[in-house]
């Protein structure tokens, strides 16, 4: 099978790019499982940190706000936005844009006579003039070095722990201090955990309503200013990074506060796990940097994600031909790699395009730049 454009992935960035490519007349095939990470690796009861103004449509028509209006859902009912509402919106968007996703996985991507050849798990091959990859962040889940010392079956990254019934009555250690750490703490406690300890290196975060509006101008500039992020002086990049730190890590969502049962949740700010201690029983014992020791039944790593393109299974063969810096691909202004015709978007692009592209907010801008680049080649 041959096509002009192959989009690998079916999450927000993939759907956004595929929609715009089709609208601009590019023959496009999409391979993946629609919103799989969001459906399978995020728990029921989770809320988004963004508001209804973040959406997928580069054309600005099929927005989340338009979806809410069509379904007569008052915006005050989606403050914060429940994950299921966003999933329903993405499916509405996919259908409205006529995107037919082939729910098949790519086993390997290779170059072939100046084109790209994707081998599917079932053995079929898809040949394309250009490819857009939108790897899910599950490939990049990060855990501390000592994680391997935790007994098997006693630890999980947040993306692998989205069902909490088995933790009823358990003592749980959560490593990390950002939104996922505290939201998982609330959810786990609501499912009957006996005690939760949250360990993180920074201070106790604030719980306040924050605004992400400062992101808008940067994303718009990315569309209109050639090389916007990479050409910003380092002092300005650092200032943006500090702003992200302030609103994304030092401040967590205000709506978490009433859900956190502090009687059963204990915080250890300015602290980290330094050692996993031997334990004769079927439990986990750890030593903290403040000399405290904790005994728990389960460890949850709310330790985020780190890009490492070589960990994306279907890109393993090509990773050696793509220039990488700290696991990130080096990209041109249309998210293109060193291999002409191969584009990589989403979280994998934050090094060259800024932290905004680790969020849904960046979807329309990324789609615009990718499709602009594809059309300029024709």
CATH topology category name of the largest domain? FAD/NAD(P)-binding domain
Report the total helices: 11
Form type:
globular
Helical content, roughly?
25-40%
What does the radius of gyration come to?
22 Å
Number of domains: 2
Largest sheet: 7 strands, mixed
- Looking at the overall shape, the CATH architecture of the largest domain is 3-Layer(bba) Sandwich
Residue fraction in strands: 15-25%
Name the assembly state: single chain
How far from one another are the termini?
21 Å
Name the CATH superfamily classification of the largest domain.
FAD/NAD(P)-binding domain
List low-confidence stretches: none
Instruction: Output the CATH class name of the largest domain.
Output: Alpha Beta
Structural class: alpha/beta
How many distinct beta strands?
Answer: 19
Mean pLDDT: 95
> What is the helix/strand order?
EHEHHHEEEEEEHEEHHHEEEEEEHEEEHH
Descriptive key words:
378 residues; FAD/NAD(P)-binding domain; seven-stranded mixed β-sheet; alpha/beta; 21% strand; five-stranded parallel β-sheet
Structural overview:
The protein folds into two domains: 2-140 and 305-377, FAD/NAD(P)-binding domain; 145-208 and 253-301, 3-Layer(bba) Sandwich (FAD/NAD(P)-binding domain), CATH 3.50.50. Helices cover 27% and strands 21% of the residues. The protein is built from eleven helices and 19 strands. It has helices at residues 12-23, 36-40, 64-70, 83-96, 179-190, 214-224, 228-231, 234-248, 316-319, 350-353, 363-377, and strands spanning 2-8, 28-31, 101-102, 106-112, 115-120, 125-133, 155-157, 171-175, 195-199, 206-207, 251-252, 265-268, 273-277, 284-288, 293-296, 298-301, 324-325, 328-329, 342-344. Strands 1, 2, 3, 4, 5, 6 and 19 form a seven-stranded mixed beta sheet that branches. Strands 7-16-8-9-12 form a five-stranded parallel beta sheet, with helices on one face. Helix 1 (12-23) links the parallel strand 1 (2-8) and strand 2 (28-31). Helix 1 crosses helix 11 and helix 6 packs parallel to helix 11. The longest helix has 15 residues, at 234-248. It is globular, with a radius of gyration of 22 Å.
């Amino acid at each position: 099978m041959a096509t002009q454009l192959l989009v690998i992935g079916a999450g927000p960035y993939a759907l956004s790019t595929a929609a715009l490519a089709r609208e601009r007349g590019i023959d496009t095939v999409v391979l993946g499982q629609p919103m799989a990470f969001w459906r399978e690796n995020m728990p029921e009861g989770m809320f988004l940190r963004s508001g209804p103004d973040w959406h997928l449509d580069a054309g600005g028509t099929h927005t989340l706000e338009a979806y809410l209006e069509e379904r007569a859902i008052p915006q005050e009912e989606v403050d914060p936005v429940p994950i299921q509402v966003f999933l329903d919106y993405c499916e509405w968007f996919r259908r409205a844009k006529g995107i037919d996703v082939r729910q098949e996985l790519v086993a390997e991507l290779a170059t072939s006579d100046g084109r790209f050849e994707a081998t599917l798990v079932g053995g079929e091959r898809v040949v394309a003039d250009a490819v857009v990859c939108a790897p899910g962040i599950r490939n990049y889940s990060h855990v501390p070095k000592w994680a391997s010392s935790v007994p098997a079956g006693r630890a999980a990254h947040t993306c692998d722990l989205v069902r909490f019934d088995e933790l009823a009555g358990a003592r749980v250690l959560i490593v990390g201090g950002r939104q996922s750490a505290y939201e998982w703490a609330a959810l786990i406690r609501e499912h009957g955990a006996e005690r939760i300890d949250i360990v993180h290196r920074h201070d106790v975060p604030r719980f306040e309503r924050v605004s992400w509006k400062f992101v808008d101008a940067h994303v718009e500039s990315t569309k209109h200013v050639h090389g916007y992020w990479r050409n910003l002086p380092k002092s300005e990049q650092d200032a943006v990074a500090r702003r992200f730190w302030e609103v994304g890590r030092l401040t967590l969502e205000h709506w978490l506060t009433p859900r956190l049962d502090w009687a059963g949740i204990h915080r250890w700010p300015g602290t980290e796990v330094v050692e996993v201690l031997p334990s004769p029983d079927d439990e986990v014992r750890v030593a903290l940097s403040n000399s405290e020791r904790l005994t728990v039944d389960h460890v949850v790593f709310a330790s985020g994600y780190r890009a490492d393109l070589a960990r994306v299974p279907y890109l393993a063969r090509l990773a050696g031909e793509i220039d990488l810096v700290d696991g990130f691909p080096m990209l041109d202004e249309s998210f293109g790699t060193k291999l002409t015709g191969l584009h990589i978007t989403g979280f994998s692009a934050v090094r060259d395009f800024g932290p905004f592209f680790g969020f849904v907010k960046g979807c329309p801008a990324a789609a615009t730049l990718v499709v602009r680049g594809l059309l300029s080649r024709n």
